[in-house]
Amino acid sequence: MANILDGKQIAREIQEEIRDEVERFVAAAGIQPCLAAVLVGNDPASEVYVRNKQRACRRVGIQSQLHPLPENASTTELIELVDKLNTAIDVHGILVQLPLPGQMDQTSILDRVHPFKDVDAFHPENVGRIAQGRAHFLPCTPHGIQQLLHRSSIQVGGQHVVIVGRSEIVGKPLAMMLMQRNSTCGPEAANATVTVCHSRSSNLKDLTRQADILVAAIGRPRYISGDMVRSGATVVDVGINRTENGLCGDVDFESVREVASHITPVPGGVGPLTIAMLLQNTLRAARLQTDATGS
């Protein structure tokens, strides 16, 4: 029976560290870090996510702004808002809540966020820096996974990590981060052998059963079953799927728990760490912009 990795507790520990860092930064620089969230439309899930992020900001002493736009807003309108936030000296991080309505050009909008304010690390400049191992910001969910494994004393260096899912948000950046020679947690949280699988991979079960650490980020409810997991593996479930029976992950929790050594729950696993890393990136953004202006 697998041990459950408590993402909520680890996120609380990280947020306490960030709160102390924010206090020191404010005392030294006289500047309050600020995160501006852009929310288009009234999608209930997105509204919940934004509220959770605002509450987390308050807990650590980061200011937050909410900039709502109607569901029928155009790409031009959103780009104009992003441009204003890019030049606002009191805004350090910009979060465009995804998904955006279908009429919007998501790539153009995310590319418009200034790289120093891109706390989601979606801008191509920041993605390129991740690949080279010299990131300004690390994407929040992959960095949260890395922190979760490290703080749970799960060895990554030298292990075979299999990632199911090749998204720009999780699969691709996580693979780049885990194969680096070093990390924010030290070399033991990197230096992995990484395999990335997806919906077109042949013999998926054969690949997932090779994993010392299996990351499920494919966006399909309970897709990873117990017979796809090697005995004693660590399983990280990134999925958040809304079904008739409530929230569930990409992992069939009950069957996988019988064979894995460690497993993350949904909810309460990776999600809280994603928010914690967003706060860390906002503080990092405030530092970068303060250094750049010499203030």
Describe the structure.
This protein folds into two domains: 30-115, Rossmann fold (3-Layer(aba) Sandwich); 139-271, Rossmann fold (3-Layer(aba) Sandwich). Helix 2 links the parallel strand 2 (34-40) and strand 3. The model has no long low-confidence stretch (mean pLDDT 96). The chain contains ten helices and eleven strands. It has 295 residues and is α/β, with parallel strands linked by helices.
Features:
295 residues, 2 domains, 10 helices, globular, 11 strands, 41% helix, Rossmann fold, alpha/beta, six-stranded parallel beta sheet, three-stranded parallel beta sheet
The number of helices is 10
Please tell me the CATH architecture of the largest domain by its name.
3-Layer(aba) Sandwich
Spatial order of strands in the largest sheet: 1-11-8-7-5-6
Radius of gyration computed on alpha carbons: 19 Å
Low-confidence stretches: none
Relevant CATH superfamily of the largest domain: NAD(P)-binding Rossmann-like Domain
**Category by helix and strand content:** alpha/beta
Question: Mean pLDDT across all residues, rounded?
Answer: 96
CATH class of the largest domain: Alpha Beta
The strand count comes to 11
Strand content: 15-25%
Number of domain modules: 2
Envelope shape? globular
* Euclidean distance between termini CA atoms: 54 Å
Helical content stands at: 40-55%
Q: What is the CATH T-level topology of the largest domain?
A: Rossmann fold
Largest sheet, if any?
6 strands, parallel
